[in-house]
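re: ur question from yesterday

yeah so i grabbed the chain u mentioned. its 706 aa long if i counted rite. heres the sequnce exactly as i have it in my notes:
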Amino acid sequence: MWADLARRTNRLVPDASVAAVADALDYLCLAQLYLHDNPLLARPLAPADIKPRPAGHWGVCPPVNRMLAALGPLQAAVPDGYELHVLHGAGHAGPSALAHAYLTGRLGHAHPHLRQGEAGLRELVAGFPRADIGGEITPMIPGHLHTGGQLGPALAIGQGTVLDAPHRLSVVLIGDGECETGTTAASWLATRALHGTGDHGTVLPVVLLNGLRMGGPSVLSTLSRTELTDYFSGLGHRPVYSDGLDIGQLRQAVADTLGAAQPLGILGPSSVLVLTLDKGHGAPAHLAGTPAVHKTPLRDPAAVRAECDALAEWLASYQPTQRLTPSGRPRPHLLPALPQPRPEPAGLPAPRGCVAASTQVAAHAAGRPFAQVVPEVLRARSEQGPFRVFSPDELASNRLDLTDEDGRLVPWAVEVLSEELCHAWAQGYTETGRHALVATYEAFAPITLSLIQQQLKHRAVRRHAGLAPLPSLVYLLTSLGWHNTLTHQNPSLTSALLAGCDSTLHVLTPADPSRTAAALTFALRKLDRCTLVVAGKHTSVHHPLETLDEELRHGIAIWPHLTHPGPGEPDLILASAGDLPAEALTTLARRLRAERPDLRLRYVHVHDLTALAEDGTRPLALAPDAFARSFGTRAPLVLATSGHPADIHALLGRRHPGPRLTVLGYRDPGRPVSQGRLRQLCGLDDASLWQLATTLTDTPKEIPVP
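ran it thru and got these structure tokens back, copy pasting raw so excuse formatting
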């Protein structure tokens, strides 16, 4: 379908129109980088028209602009029910994305002060780099999917966008420097892991082989044409080459590439378009092929006369008055090659009944082990609409049996031995409105930290732009370090994300398998969150569920079956966050109640760590009175977490209970030790906890309030 559409638009839309769009895009990019005034060169260029400090990136713009121009007629002709997305692997093409959105009119729809017209054009050019929208690609520039500032995941994210979407084509623009990253390198090969997993759309990878990274030649550019062909062929991709100079040949190359492209997951060679236009094409000859073209090749044309003259000649070479009207609109001969604005897709309906559904799941799961109830939750979710589970080859190890009656992995679950790919596929899937889960070992989840942070930044900008909420990013962190060898102990993903203070982050620490089932159900129903569910696969202890509703709603609850009734300050407060801490502290609480019946005890379970945060800093942060109801004002407080103790201290911030608080959690033993010895070193064994409780309750009760 896509190849036929490309061939038909190649016949119907003149090459001259597409070439004019490419020139207009190049001109608008250059004008944004350099011009303060005189945006259409209505008068001879003067130093006063030039920005005193040009900023931004020119080098990637010319090849991106040619691709956007070549794809324009195809985008304009996409029939109802089909989608074509352009995904940028390098945010440096911000001037291109802004220029393209301006020419299509979508920028003006989203930002009225940038509508096509004299004022809008002047603001587009003079206002770059834009503090309000961003000088690099962000979700505030309509019409462009972007992966964030990190190089590497673009191809895999593009693959995630077309999973289970046969109606979708994603064109992924990949810099040749990006091809040096491990994530991109893995993405070429990893499509084989998607074979037989469903009916998918098509990815058209476009490698911008411009020869240079920021500081020198790219590794890919050192390969001969024969070596390059062998490289891609060995990875299962048939390369089609174009230098982009002849627009007609480039359009034909796009059609040929689409003709040889296979839907994702189909075995056999697919195609990749390799665009070999030099980086910074069009820059003054003495700068061509040098690292200077990465950003603004002419450093100070406002002050250096020779540079001012070179810039004037460079700008005029695009014949701006032949591309744009005096009022700043594209001239009629450009319009056939420009896609028109389309209505934004409707957002997902707001979830309802999340707590009720989650508590119902927990009731059904009560008393049963992790290995039974968690796979049940995931199977049930797969029957409710598009859903995917991605795991780095650890589902069986994590006791997540997602196989069918023949022992084969269900089609909606994918394993590939790369945490980065699992995240990127999930990101592409959720960014296109579907729900996904990444399930992995707690110790190796930090590999994806930067990718998660980039996605959170992307989501934050989306919210700022008023765009519709998307499905949440959900991680299940299991195979916890408490039951693993030294190299498999690392709860640092939680620490790093909590330090970022993203308001959508929730760290769920369920106390038992039924609560884990509820936590996953809850997390997968919610929109626009980032939720980490931290749950050990070995947990066997179960606790009463009477407070689960409160735990889900508020992130915390007092467990009445272990708490002495009545008003007043208790003698000791025990608080758990996680399944192993709950097992350890409830054992202590039962012993204290049996052997110290005079001791007034309060037991609190923290289901969501963010409830501990300072008031007003996170959605679930307890108000001062609620915090005091749970944690008292004078009583000794022992809080045990499955993660780093520092996480708790950082969350509490200025309302830290001071010397009356003891936090127990994971501490790196520095050498291999047994599981029992690790608990002892961390103070979470029975003997250490009893000694701590005895010490705290035998000391004078008046502890100074901080």
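noticed a couple things. Residues 158 and 170 are 6 Å apart (CA to CA). also The longest strand covers residues 168-175.
anyway ttyl
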